[in-house]
Amino acid sequence: MIVVCPACQARFQYDDSRFGTVRVKRFKCPKCSHVFEVMNPTLAPAPLMPEPPLVTVPAPMPPNEPTPPAPIPAAQTTARRDREAMLVAAGLQVPGMPPGLKFSLAFLSGPQASTVKVIENPQTVIGREEGDVVTLDPETSRRHALLEIHRDGTVWISDQQSTNGTLVNGERITGAVQLFSQQEFTCGNSTFMLLVRSTDEFPLH
Domain of life of the organism in this record (predicted)? Predict the structure, then answer.
């Protein structure tokens, strides 16, 4: 039999043989939680029994909805992966670095002022005498700061427990801070500017 909720008109399938000899059963609509009573269709109408047991009915029958369309193959994503693979094979793209972007640090002050260092790895250590970017600055710690380039093209800098700290916008940072193109930061007496540019002007032929 089909049970219809008088409150929200939701329809539910219910086996009427489960009534047994009970003349009436109470149902709770799983859609709107309305409680209502239904007479046993196999028995003649009779006075309602006081407080019949509450019955949990099955979930409502799903409406006849159209089948959702199949997802469109990500051809563009595949093409980008293929292009990245070609760039890596040609030595024009470093594995793990975001495609289409080139990163570099310009020394604005300090012993290395007026020089530019190209960033070639996702993680770059800035230090006084060791690391990927060497400052030769006595106010810079041996391993002063860590520059991280994420796959989405964002750049983050974090201090490596240096003595004089790493400053961004003139404030000493305590955790990872995002940097943007042409933004400056300072390690000791050395100030840098992050430079990010697109490499689409040099397409692979």
Answer: Bacteria
Name residues whose C-beta falls within 8 Å of residue 186's C-beta, 6 or more positions apart in sequence. 166, 167, 192
Closest Cα partner for 140 from 160, 114, 154? 160
**Which pLDDT tens digit goes with each residue over 1-59?**
788 888 888 888 878 778 778 888 888 888 888 888 888 877 755 555 555 666 565 66
Kindly give the pairing relationship between strand 166-168 and strand 171-172. antiparallel
Residue 101: strand, helix, or coil = strand
User: pTM of the predicted model, to two decimals?
Assistant: 0.53
Cα–Cα distance between 3 and 59 in angstroms, integer?
A: 12
Other C-beta atoms lying within 10 Å of the C-beta of residue 3: 19
By CB atoms closer than 10 A (0-12, 13-18, 19+), residue 76 is exposed
